[in-house]
Design brief:
It contains ten helices and six strands, in the order βααβαααβααβααββα. With 234 residues, it is an alpha/beta fold. The protein has one domain: Decaprenyl diphosphate synthase-like (Undecaprenyl pyrophosphate synthetase, 3-Layer(aba) Sandwich), CATH 3.40.1180. Strands 3-4-2-1-5-6 form a six-stranded parallel beta sheet. The radius of gyration is 18 Å and the shape is globular. The relative contact order is 0.19.
């Protein structure tokens, strides 16, 4: 029987810091391993037929409340990772459009912002696949901003519909989420992450910390999704 592959998969890569603690490493070394895993899982998911893949890279709190040394290391990882995407072949050969969503322009240094803008520009014409990174992103913040935008349009007699809300979100160009995967062994959602786009999502919680959530674990999660039936209230 043909496997049912979700169109849009979101991964919340929790557990980098706990993994580092278990290995007697610094927190940012856990983030480093996590970044390597993002690269492996991206290739794997795109090869498996996932058309839209989203990673939550950081919340606003991650960048404002954690120790400065950890934040600086995280920004350095972003800089190297995104530059490697630009310099590599994968996104071009697979025609992957890269989207960076959130308040990263308010939080990131100019050199990193330049790299991100370059990556977005080089991939903006691709349409086959999408790879999305949520950086300095909060779902609660996203929805509040959308309401503010709509409020400013009310003088034009805008009718509030689901479509109007969607087109005013930071995630307006992304398909609804079919499958949300959270690693790290804590089965909960955080900060209203993509709350509008995940309203009908299937959820999967892994006990593995993200650096240990390898291709084999990803395959298990896709197998689990394929076995599920969707009723959508019927």
């Amino acid at each position: 029987m043909e496997k049912n592959i979700p169109n849009h998969v979101v991964i919340i890569p929790d557990g980098n810091r706990r993994w580092a603690s278990e290995q007697n490493l610094k927190p940012w070394e856990g983030h480093e391993e996590g970044a390597k895993n993002v690269e492996k899982l991206t290739r794997y998911c795109l090869d498996k037929g996932v058309n839209c893949l989203t990673f939550w890279g950081s919340s606003i709190d991650n960048l404002t409340k954690r120790p400065v040394r950890e934040k600086m290391a995280l920004l350095d990882i972003y800089q190297r990772y995104f530059q490697s995407l630009i310099d590599g072949k994968d996104i071009y050969e697979n025609e992957v459009k890269v989207n960076i969503i959130g308040r990263w322009e308010e939080q990131f240094p100019e050199a990193l912002k330049k790299t991100i803008r370059d990556l977005i520009e080089k991939t903006k014409h691709f349409e086959k696949k999408a790879l999305n990174f949520m950086l300095a992103y909060s779902g609660k913040d996203d929805l509040i901003c959308a309401v503010e935008k709509i409020k400013n349009k009310l003088e034009k007699n805008v009718q509030i519909t689901a479509e109007v809300i969607k087109e005013n979100l930071m995630t307006k160009d992304l398909a609804s989420v079919d499958y949300m995967i959270r690693t790290g062994g804590e089965p909960h959602l955080s900060d209203g992450f993509m709350m509008w786009d995940t309203q009908n999502s299937q959820l999967y919680f892994s006990e593995k910390n993200f650096p240990d959530f390898n291709e084999e674990e990803m395959e298990k999660s896709l197998e689990d999704y394929s076995r599920r039936g969707r009723r959508f209230g019927k």
